[in-house]
Amino acid sequence: MTRKEFDRFCGSLPATANVIQWGNASVWKVGGKIFAICSNWGADETDKISFKCSDLTYAILIEQKGIIPAPYLARAKWVQLASLDAMQDQDIKVYIREAYSIIKLKLTKTMRKKLGL
């Protein structure tokens, strides 16, 4: 999944917002809370996708080749695809949609109503 495809997919989810932070990272939020990031940190400067996971999903994914605990975010159960071929595009979309749902459910009822969620 390219960064452009990542941005297009995240933008298709309801009530999302995109900001460029931390240099050139494409940060996607719902209700002001981050659910997915595409960044090019590190020496190789290739795009890396990171997203929030459930505890169980986190434990399973970090055992997979090419998927690591996300730098600075691992304690909050985030993973990073160390290479873009670590996961198929359709699977990335499923996990990003799940990350979006996890974060959306953490929003207050008032905020969800305000966002039409």
UniProtKB/TrEMBL annotation:
Organism, as annotated: Sneathiella litorea
One annotated GO molecular function: DNA binding
InterPro entries recorded: YjbR, YjbR-like_sf, YjbR/MT2646/Rv2570-like
Top-rank taxon: Bacteria
SUPFAM superfamilies in the cross-refs: YjbR-like
Coiled coil (residue ranges): none
The protein's name in its UniProt record: MmcQ/YjbR family DNA-binding protein
Keywords noted in UniProt: DNA-binding
